[in-house]
Amino acid sequence: MKLALPTLTLGILLAIAACADRGAEDVAESATPSPDLEQPPRDASPDDTPTGTPTPDTSAGAPEPGDGPASYNGFADAEFGMDAEQVRAVWDGELDGGPGDGPGAESASCFHLSPAGQWSMGHFALMFGDGGFARYSVANDEMTAPGGGRRGMDDAEIVQLYGDGNVERQPHKYSDGEYLRIHDPAGSDAVLIFETDAEGTVTEWRVGLPPHVDYVEGCA
């Protein structure tokens, strides 16, 4: 029996060594990355859009330049050629002004109406001449002209919006600026005029029918 103990001990030691070797192999296999988790090929682009991902449409719903109530036909629902009562009927709110008596009063042949409560008639005014709505004038930064022009823009911006070939230049009567005249692209008689100062900055603008659109002293 004493001769069998070394043999038994040797068998136990060999079994333990075999188990240790298998454990080391298991650890080595777990440290090797799975093929499913490998990084993409080096030539894959990080900017590639995954299949099925929609591309945003940034152009949808973009507003057209100059969208708003100002047009070559008139302003909002007030169209050139309407008389004062017709304009009052379609206007959203009250309008002040009109012909009257006394010093400084305007005559029935040419007069202005402005939104009630406005601090100055020059801010926005509707001109009536020869019995009908003939022009509107704007001297504020909030309103946008047909085509996108605004008070405060410079000469270059106006040319960029309307095209140099469509801008007719005339010297300003009272300053070193200019009158930039732009005819209705649809072919009507209406004209858009931007007034600029000596630096070429738009100070006011108006839209209307000749000859009233070219008046520079109110109704004259």
Automatic annotation (TrEMBL):
Skewed-composition ranges (Low complexity): 47-63
PROSITE patterns with a match to the protein in the record: PROKAR_LIPOPROTEIN
Disordered: annotated segments: 23-76
Keywords: Signal
Keyword check for Signal: yes
Signal sequence region: 1-20
Domain of life: Bacteria
Protein name: Lectin
Organism in which the protein naturally occurs: Novilysobacter erysipheiresistens
